[in-house]
Amino acid sequence: MVDLIKDDLKADGIKVEAVQMNYNSLNTPLNNDEIDGNLIQHQYFMQVFNDANKGDLVIAQPVYHSKFAIFSEKYETINDIPNGETIYLPLDTVNLSRALILLETAGLITLKDGIVKTSSTLDDIAANPKNLVWDQSAINVTPAKYRDSGRGLAIMYPSYVISSLGSYDEGEIYMNEPLNDLTKTYAISFVVKASRLNDDDIQTFIKHLTSDKVRQWIIDQYGFAAIPAF
Prior knowledge:
By secondary structure, this protein is of the alpha+beta class. It contains eight helices and eleven strands. The longest helix has 13 residues, at 93-105. The radius of gyration is 19 Å and the shape is elongated. 30% of the residues are buried.
């Protein structure tokens, strides 16, 4: 996306250098004013960093919603899932709560008192009628673990599937996460320091980042895994 708008930014007097780094390390240089922004995270990931590091990062612009899905190589529908099957879930709190929201939407679990929140844990499950077994792992290693185990179920981002397994065979059996006020907050966003949010160059970058051609590029090139958030 950044490459797509480089020339437009240059015409407005802004030179952009896009640097790929491990997403776990990109908030520190941003908070230290070593880079101007990043495009790696939703607000909850950002807030975890802010809370732990007295950070001053803010969402400047939501860019795309990463789809979240239940994948299976063994079952074709939710109804095919047998009692006692193991399902891989994310280990981190942010993505675990999103996985639980998806499982409840699919009718596989019920959360306590019908509470759907971004901090739910396994302790918030009130009913598990199929007696599903939970196996948690870091979300970036889940696809490989899922592949190597031969087990039937995992909740993953399609983008992780293709990056970890080298292909995408559309093995999702449930991708009906509702897009509502809660799930919209999981949008992957352009993040900056609060003190720079209204800088002219930041606002110009946002203008081009949310252009029609970027929106169409997301749809055309990444539609299997994401939808535009602008």
